[in-house]
Write a structure and sequence with these properties.
Low-confidence stretches: 109-128, 440-445
Structural class: alpha+beta
Distance between the termini: 55 Å
Mean pLDDT: 83
Largest sheet: 7 strands, antiparallel
Helix content: 40-55%
Strand content: 15-25%
CATH class of the largest domain: Alpha Beta
Order of helices and strands: HEEEHEEEEHHHEHEEHEEHEE
Radius of gyration: 53 Å
Length: 486
């Protein structure tokens, strides 16, 4: 199943089905329990009414058998009275349905009022001795499920058992079993079950259909994004953008992120194209000059400009090294994890330039411990940054170049200042772009290829720092390299 719509519809249907089945089962159980409790309450009411009549010595009506089956059982488990027409019974104290006479006629609780009055008249002398009154148990009725058969029809009942003591000193304890039919409970549960079995599939079809349509509508913008991305891939036109929905949901954010990715990719490809074009241009000049000198030298050895050929070769070597470093940086090369004393690195680099025409002065930082100027990174890359900054300063300075290293707020700050013409404020960000030089000359001179500052800023960023330029106190340019200290 590859369609997201189908998966969503199926998943929603399964979840709803499980929930409905669980809810249906709980409903049926609650309905059955409630109806059985009602039947038990009805049975208990009938049993207590019958027990009260027996305790009062009143006659008991046993004619309504099918609606309220009754059975009165003595302490020995013998049936004293039973509903008329009762053929069989289960779930009570006895399965007997034929009453047995009470021994010595005591405690049967079934004499009518006329007989009792006659006895009272005949025994006038004894009428003054009132018999002990009957008592009905106050305990909760015991409930049991059972069956009763009338006219060959067997039905389920809920029986309640209540104990009673008839009037008389020697009356034993009787148990009254009264039943309430469970047919209505069975019918109600069966009706609810049938309704659930019919309604559940219909409801699941509705849920699946609605989920399918809703998911289809929700995923329509995703399909539009996919089709536009396919068209962009086919046409290779990175200037195109995917449609962005007006909503603020996840699909809209996906579209915006996709367009941002396309914009970044377009910019990256454009930078790559400019890089290739500029690199080709920069390589063409020294290669052409070197070829010309070699061809002249081959034809006229006495005219060979060996120093010029060596200079062109060195320039080619430096340019190739810069291009290789930029390629590694663009490929995501991580900076090293070596501790470097930036102060010692500055002193070492400056000492190698002692014979340069433009002198470089190190502005010391007295009182600063050597370890306070340590940073973490790649020594070769940081040395390249320092060298590029010093080359740029010497190229534009009039009389002096000053280097200083200090610790400031947890960072190690390297500053290279010159007394040249400086960098115009509107050009202070553009000079860090690749192959950008403020002079227009692209011949073999001392202007460089325009890669030094771009390399310096890239390396600074990959070391967790930054490189900026502003005006120096001497009026020239002040380049500031800020790296996190260790």
């Amino acid at each position: 199943m590859r369609s997201v719509r189908a998966k969503a519809a199926l998943g929603a249907t399964v979840v709803v089905a499980v929930a409905l089945v669980a809810a249906g089962l709980a409903l049926l159980w609650a309905l059955q329990t409630s109806l059985k409790d009602q039947a038990g309450l009805q049975a208990e009411v009938t049993a207590r009414e019958t027990a009260v009549a027996i305790a009062a010595g009143r006659p008991v009506d046993l004619s309504d058998g099918e609606d309220r089956p009754l059975q009165i059982v003595d302490e020995d488990g013998h049936v004293r009275r039973a509903s008329e027409g009762l053929e069989a019974i289960t779930g009570t104290g006895s399965t007997e349905v034929t009453p047995r006479p009470a021994p010595d006629g005591r405690g049967d609780g079934d004499r009518n009022a006329g007989e009792r009055d006659a006895d009272d008249d005949e025994g006038g002398d004894e009428a003054d001795d009132d018999p002990e009154p009957g008592r009905v148990s106050t305990k909760d009725a015991r409930l049991h499920d059972g069956t009763a058969t009338f006219d060959g029809d067997r039905a389920d009942y809920r029986f309640a058992a209540v104990e009673v003591t008839p009037p008389g000193e020697d009356a034993g304890t009787l148990t009254v079993y009264a039943g309430a039919p469970l047919a209505s409970e069975r019918e109600a549960v069966e009706t609810a079950r049938s309704a659930l079995l019919v309604g559940l599939p219909v409801l699941l079809v509705v849920v699946g259909g609605v989920t399918w349509l809703t998911t289809r509508r929700a995923l329509r913008p995703v399909e539009d994004i996919r089709s536009e991305m396919a068209a962009i891939t086919h046409s290779e036109d990175l200037s195109r953008r995917v449609p962005e929905p007006d909503s603020q949901d996840e699909v809209a954010r996906l579209a915006r992120t996709t367009n941002e990715t396309l914009a970044a990719l377009e910019a990256s490809v454009e930078r790559q194209r400019r890089f290739v074009a500029d690199a080709s241009h920069e390589l063409r000049s020294p290669i052409a000059s070197l070829r010309t000198q070699l061809e002249v030298g081959a034809a006229h050895p006495e005219l060979l400009d060996v120093p010029g050929a060596v200079a062109d070769t060195v320039r080619l070597q430096q340019l190739a090294a810069d291009l290789l470093l930029l390629a590694r940086l663009d490929a995501g090369e991580r900076a090293g994890r070596t501790r470097i004393d930036l102060g010692a690195l500055v002193r070492e680099e400056v000492s190698q330039r002692a014979q340069d025409a433009m002198p470089v002065t190190v502005d010391g930082s007295p009182g600063t411990a050597p370890q306070a100027l340590e940073v973490e990174g790649s020594r070769s890359q940081l040395a390249r940054v320092l060298g590029n900054l010093l080359d740029n300063a010497q190229r534009h300075a009039r009389a002096s170049v000053t280097v200083s290293v200090r610790r400031e707020a947890g960072n190690v700050v390297l500053r290279v200042a010159d007394d040249g013409a400086g960098v115009p404020e509107e050009e202070r960000e553009r000079i860090f772009e690749r192959f950008v030089r403020l002079d227009d000359a692209r011949t073999r001179d001392e202007g460089g290829a325009g890669l030094g500052l771009a390399i310096a800023r890239d390396v600074a960023g990959r070391h967790g720092g930054g490189l900026t330029v502003r005006r120096s106190p001497e009026g020239g340019a002040l380049f500031e390299l800020r790296l996190p200290g260790v």
